[in-house]
Design brief:
By secondary structure, the chain is mainly alpha-helical. Helices cover about 65% and strands about 0% of the residues. The chain contains 23 helices and no strands. It starts with 9 loop residues before the first helix and ends with a helix.
Length: about 550
């Protein structure tokens, strides 16, 4: 351990991080069910339709809620967690929120454990874990119940990495790691990233040991190296049999995935777009993720990256540069600094599922919550970066060393405080559907038809029929997303509102105008039904 960390014990570090995370996110317990929570929690309690085995391979979304995504997402662990909670505590949203918060606290602890082991720098690891705990992009997956998919995938994935490191062969540790990896895959598709990460992690101690050092007891930066534990020696010796449970978990995960395809046809990679657009869409998505990471102060809850960016788009070129440079840098640093290489690989591998490398129904979707697992890799980079900066400051003399070191720690502390304040400001937005979509409207306006649709529905549920009509009519007048399903959903909702209020002629005109645009099903069927009702002789 670095001499500057002698006053920070592991229990104090873990307790401080846990209290900090709890203090920030406990206010989310006052939140209600929001957005997709309504469909997911209601579906989770319907055990009468399927048996246990059928439920394990049932699609995450039901045909009624997300017909286009039925065959895309298979998340039995997340679905089971919803069912168990509702059976034990009823439909109270507070218990669901509490579960999310506790998952996040456990993830923060495991991120600290991994960074502390890899960098052997306690203070840098505490700050990196605090960065992971408080970063503004974490609000959506923690404060939103449906964000549990990312929390559980990260929870079981981190536990699998920590457990597999202790395996010496085909023993309880390797078996536990295989089970945890299977649970991570069953929570969300990003769990597959932990399979190559486990293989990569096993080579890091060997890579560190191969580095030339100034003395037999020196580390990469000349600091004393901690004595090698039996666990570390086993990780370097890597008995092949310890990979059997991991391989079995991967095989079972693929089997469950294939079994779920009976519920519908798998959408093609990239949706209906030509194959040559897939790399361009992925690069645009990578640009969006980069922008989110560098400027998380004014995010949007709405998915982005679905449209093909023009050649002049900065996001496209930034994404292309990032996608090309990160693998090159990670490869070049694999022996010089394997910890940074591992952190870069972590971020890249965790973003692969949402860059449309695996088939998804919507091409290259981008959302805040998709940063949750990659941010664990970013924490490794932050810890290693602080470690290297403080080592550089230690090579200075006297007051200069103290001044540089103080500036580094003060700057990182200020950044963490800023993250905490922004996150605390954003948590109340997730309290209800109305607060969420009103906040989205105030920040970004009606730039996305999904926002207009959901805000109108929230106002209608709150009894504000005039407010719902205002936002829906404005969205339709602007022609937002004229070819998207959400645009036609707005038309259906607005036409029904007009029909309920007895404004038959307006409902007839609106439904007829939208039918001329050839809407997709099921919006087309709904509009035809409204149109037929308004043309019936009265």
């Amino acid at each position: 351990m670095n001499r500057n960390d002698a006053t920070i014990s592991r229990p104090i570090a873990v307790a401080s991080l846990a209290l900090l995370s709890l203090a920030l996110f406990l206010p989310s317990l006052r939140g209600a069910f929001v957005w997709d929570d309504h469909a997911l929690i209601a579906a989770a309690g319907d055990d009468s339709r399927t048996g246990l085995l059928s439920g394990l391979i049932a699609p995450y979304w039901t045909p009624a809620s997300h017909p286009q995504d039925v065959a895309t997402y298979v998340r039995p662990v997340t679905t089971l967690s919803f069912r168990i909670q509702e059976a034990l505590f009823g439909p109270s949203p507070a218990w669901f929120h509490l579960f999310n918060v506790l998952c996040h606290v456990l993830n923060v602890w495991m991120v600290f454990a991994i960074t502390d082991r890899m960098t052997r720098h306690r203070r840098a690891s505490v700050m990196a874990a605090a960065f992971f705990a408080l970063y503004p992009l974490q609000v959506e997956p923690v404060a939103w119940i449906s964000g549990r998919t990312d929390l559980l995938a990260c929870l079981f994935g981190l536990a699998a990495l920590l457990t597999h490191r202790r395996a010496r062969g085909l023993d309880r540790w390797s078996a536990g790691a295989g089970l945890l990896l299977l649970l991570s895959i069953g929570s969300k598709e990003v769990g597959w990233a932990f399979l190559p990460l486990a293989v990569w992690q096993a080579r890091i101690p060997q890579a560190l040991d191969d580095r030339p050092v100034s003395s037999p007891k020196a580390g990469l930066d000349g600091r004393p190296r901690e004595p090698r534990t039996p666990v570390a020696a086993t990780a370097m010796g890597a008995a092949p049999r310890r990979w059997i449970p991991v391989a079995a978990a991967a095989l079972l995960g693929v089997t469950v995935r294939l079994a779920s395809l009976k519920h519908g046809a798998m959408p093609p990679i990239g949706g209906d777009s030509p194959p040559w657009t897939i790399p361009l869409r992925a690069a645009t998505s990578a640009g969006h993720y980069l922008l989110m990471l560098l400027w998380p102060w004014n995010p949007s809850v709405l998915p982005a990256g679905r449209a093909l960016a023009p050649p002049s788009s900065p996001l496209l070129w930034a994404g292309l540069f990032t996608m090309l440079s990160v693998p090159i840098v990670a490869w070049r640093l694999r022996t010089r600094d394997p910890v940074i290489s591992f952190g870069l690989g972590w971020v890249a591998l965790a973003l692969v599922p949402v860059l449309n490398i695996i088939p998804l129904s919507a091409p290259s979707p981008v959302a805040e919550r998709f940063w949750y697992v990659p941010l664990a890799g970013m924490a490794i980079l932050v810890a290693r970066g602080l470690d290297r900066l403080l080592a550089w400051a230690a090579r200075s003399n006297g007051k200069m060393e103290r001044g540089i070191r103080g500036a580094i720690l003060s700057g990182m502390s200020a950044a963490i405080l800023a993250c905490c304040l922004v996150s605390a400001w954003r948590i109340p937005e997730w309290r209800t559907d109305l607060t969420l979509w009103e906040a989205e409207l105030s920040r970004h306006g009606l730039q996305h038809p999904l926002c207009a649709r959901n805000l109108g529905q929230a106002r209608l549920q709150a009894g504000d029929r005039q407010g719902a009509e205002e936002v829906w009519s404005a969205a339709l007048a602007q022609g937002l997303g004229g070819g998207t399903i959400h645009y036609y959903d707005i038309g259906v909702e607005y036409a029904r509102l007009l029909l309920d209020e007895g404004r038959i002629d307006q409902a007839h005109t609106l439904s007829g105008r939208l039918l001329e645009l050839s809407p997709p099903e099921p919006a087309r069927d709904d509009l035809l039904d409204i149109f037929s009702k308004t043309t019936t002789p009265r």
